[in-house]
Amino acid sequence: MNKQSNTYTILYSAIMVVVVGAVLALTYMALKPKQDENIANDKRMQILSAVHLTADDGNYKAVYDKYVNETFVVNMNGEKVDGEAFSS
Q1: Widest CA span of the chain, in angstroms?
Q2: Residues in the chain with pLDDT < 50?
Q3: N or C terminus of the chain with fewer C-beta within 10 Å?
Q4: Is the dihedral of CA 37, 42, 48, 53 positive or negative?
Q5: Is pTM beyond 0.85 here?
């Protein structure tokens, strides 16, 4: 195939897009559990810092579970509402 033709350039670009997209999708899927855990740890850390508690890097979950008994969603009036509460 002639490497100087437009067809070759378009075909090569299309193949590269598919390959790179597949690699990115696989990487995303492989790292998703770690991302979810990091998001949960960040929420725990923010909740703990809001009540002036500190935790070392590795024990956010243990300190959170020790001090937080229940999680729920409240509206502007402080009433419980149906919604997705943060759960550890």
Answers
A1: 71
A2: none
A3: N
A4: positive
A5: no
